[in-house]
Design a protein that fits this description.
With 606 residues, the protein is an alpha/beta fold. It has three domains: 10-332, Up-down Bundle (ABC transporter transmembrane region fold); 342-437 and 517-606, P-loop containing nucleotide triphosphate hydrolases (Rossmann fold); 447-515, Rossmann fold (3-Layer(aba) Sandwich), CATH 3.40.50. It has helices at 3-6, 10-17, 22-39, 41-55, 60-63, 69-118, 122-127, 130-172, 174-181, 183-221, 223-228, 232-258, 260-284, 290-304, 310-332, 401-408, 431-436, 452-456, 465-474, 478-482, 501-515, 531-544, 580-586, 589-598; strands at 353-361, 377-385, 390-394, 416-421, 424-425, 438-442, 519-523, 549-553, 565-570, 573-578. Strand 9 (565-570) and strand 10 form a beta hairpin. Helix 3 (22-39) packs antiparallel against helix 6 and helix 8 (130-172) packs across helix 15. The longest helix has 50 residues, at 69-118. The chain is elongated and about 120 Å long. It starts with a helix and ends in an 8-residue tail after the last helix.
């Protein structure tokens, strides 16, 4: 993204973005203009009616060929009806067009922004709050929708009013027209100045919205912790403080925007008085027809008073532009992890994995959630996992086990060395193909708010109900699912909160079974379940790990003792590797960890 593009005005960016909707925008604009033209007709009709009553056979309509006064009045009545009907028709049309456009553009923008966010690297989410992103995708997009729904039409109709009424003034009474038009440049200049001052205020308002949304989302996600620590009053005070900051930011913008309309009114009244006095003098002197004077009085009001709405319209506009800037700033964020050129269909994946002299450390602003204190560093890590083998990664907390998995999934890229899958550097592969080839069963199971069936089907959206049931049976989840109130159609609640930890884990395993990946990663899959559930999960894992490359990460060493090879990590390096029996015989770090877990006395400090 070039700097000129990223720094261009949000309205220009929006016009470029909406190029597929430009014909509808132009049509909606035409309807707004025509509606306003017909809306301005009644003052002209009033002036013509006054002219008929005063001038009779010498009226404007008489000069057009309608000599009879009754005929003139009848023609005037028909013309009034036609103009009112046309005004009503075009009001209906512009409202339909602008409202549908608002819905269409906000839908497209929200979906595009969400799709873009999904493609950003994991570190982007680790540095930002979920609430702020939700505020952009929801509240900011809605601000733009409100402007397109209401404000766009208001701006067009105000501009139409100025042009049409100004033209009528120049035609009817050019000598006095400048008096009515004089306030308009002042109003426009004031509006532009006002707009610039208001922009920065509403940018701060949008920032506060993001912070408040982030705090609310965070607290609601952790409501169980809030309740268990009886921290409701504390959290209420924190939310109240943040909400008060948001209120103060809005107050600053409101105080500034509210002063606009009274100032504009004082400028407007000058033009109105000028036409009232000087136009009246011309009418008394016989230099201006009474009907024309009536038109000028009414038109002055129709010209100037709508400009008092300019403040509210600009207020809406500035809110929308501040929000649009945030949305496009998000869209301008370039992904750091990008697709490679090489496709690798899952049917061709064997599962041979090589780590060659890999070095990695988290950028200072990023820190893996699974690691404690400082970011872990992987040093000169080399490892070969043959296709179809089961390899376990073990080691103390902070050794870098979970980081290895994130590198394999390309959540991050290595800084030195390379990782190969079937001989291809991961950076050369299409991300979709790479991640389709890998199934992950994590300690932190995430279930979406939906049914049990929906969550299992996440492994394969094309799966039949029979396939889903078979996957659940392999994961030893079918029996407990059938005991739920609605079986596979039971809602699991947000993050699966209606299910136990073991039940969530077995649904996660069923999801991996349904995906049937060539490479399976089990990251602490049994760390937080009871012994009975662990035994059931171990039986499931023994089945699904057959004939596929499997990587186990575990603190419970009893769960990895049957792996083809156990790799022991410490501070990002491989310090030992071998079978369970060989590592015990070596009496190193693995043996020390084993003794700690089995309750044996530990004499050696490691």
């Amino acid at each position: 993204m070039t700097s000129s593009t990223s720094q261009s005005h949000p309205l220009r960016r929006l016009w470029r973005y909406a190029r597929g909707n430009r014909s509808d925008i132009l049509l909606a604009t035409l309807y707004s203009v025509l509606n306003k033209i017909f809306d301005l007709a009644p003052p002209v009709l009033i002036g013509i009616a006054v002219d008929v009553v005063v001038q009779r056979e010498d009226s404007f309509l008489a000069r057009l060929g309608l000599r009879e006064v009754n005929t003139q009045l009848f023609a005037l009545a028909i013309l009034t009806l036609v103009l009112w009907v046309l005004e009503s028709i075009f009001e209906y049309l512009y409202q339909i067009k602008w409202r549908n456009l608002a819905q269409t553009i906000q839908h497209q923008l929200r979906v595009d922004a969400y799709d873009h966010v999904q493609r950003l690297e994991l570190s982007y989410f680790e540095d930002r709050s979920t609430g702020d992103l939700i505020a952009i995708l929801n509240d900011d997009v809605n601000q733009l929708e409100r402007f397109l729904d209401i404000g766009a039409n208001d701006i067009i109709q105000i501009a139409t009013t100025v042009l049409v009424v100004g033209g009528i003034f120049v035609i009817i009474i050019p000598s006095v027209a400048w008096m009515a038009l004089l306030p308009i440049p002042l109003i426009i200049w004031g509006s532009i100045t006002f707009q610039k001052k208001l922009t920065e205020r509403y940018a701060r308002v949008r920032e506060e919205v993001g912070l408040l949304s982030a705090m609310l989302a965070n607290n609601l996600s952790g409501i169980a912790v809030v309740k268990s620590y009886t921290a409701e009053d504390f959290e209420r005070k924190r939310i109240a403080q943040e909400s008060d900051r948001y209120r103060r930011r809005n107050r600053e913008a409101i105080a500034f925007s509210s002063a606009f309309i009274p100032l504009i009114r004082m400028i407007i009244v000058v033009g109105f008085i000028a036409i009232l006095v000087f136009g009246g003098k011309l009418a008394l002197a016989g230099k201006l027809a009474v009907g024309a004077y009536s038109v000028l009085i009414f038109m002055t009001q129709r010209l100037l008073w709508p400009l008092t709405r300019l403040g509210a319209t600009l207020d809406l506009y500035q809110r929308a532009m501040a929000s649009t800037q945030r949305i496009f700033s998000l869209l301008d964020t370039a992904p750091q992890i990008t697709d490679g050129p090489q496709p690798l269909p899952r049917s061709r994946v064997r599962g041979d994995i090589r780590f060659e002299h890999v070095h990695f450390e988290y950028p200072s602003a990023h820190q893996a959630e699974s690691e404690q204190s400082t970011p872990p560093i992987i040093h000169d890590f080399s490892l070969h996992i043959p296709a179809g083998h089961t390899v376990a990664l073990v080691g103390p907390t902070g050794a870098g086990k979970s980081t290895i998995i994130k590198l394999l999934l390309r959540f991050y890229d290595v800084q030195q060395g390379r990782i190969l899958l079937d001989g291809y550097d991961l950076r050369e592969l299409k991300l979709h193909d790479l991640r389709q080839a890998i199934g992950l069963v994590s300690q932190d199971v995430y279930l979406f708010h939906g049914t049990v069936r929906d969550n299992i089907a996440y492994g394969n959206f094309e799966a039949s109900m029979q396939d889903i049931i078979r996957a659940a049976q392999i994961a030893e989840a079918h029996d407990f699912i059938m005991q739920l109130p609605h079986g596979y159609d039971t809602l699991v609640g947000e993050r699966g909160q209606k299910l136990s930890g073991g039940q969530r884990q077995r649904i996660s395993i069923a999801r991996a079974v349904l995906k049937d990946p060539p490479v399976l990663i089990l990251d602490e899959a049994t760390s937080s379940v009871d012994n009975e559930t662990e035994a059931a999960i171990q039986r499931s894992l023994a089945i699904i790990s057959r004939d596929r490359t499997t990587i186990l990460i575990a603190h419970r060493l009893s769960t990895v003792r049957n792996a083809h090879r156990i790799v022991v990590l410490d501070h990002g390096r491989i310090v030992e590797q071998g079978t369970h029996d060989a590592l015990l015989a070596a009496d190193g770090l693995y043996a020390a960890l084993w003794r700690v877990q089995t309750g044996e006395r530990v004499d050696k400090h490691w």
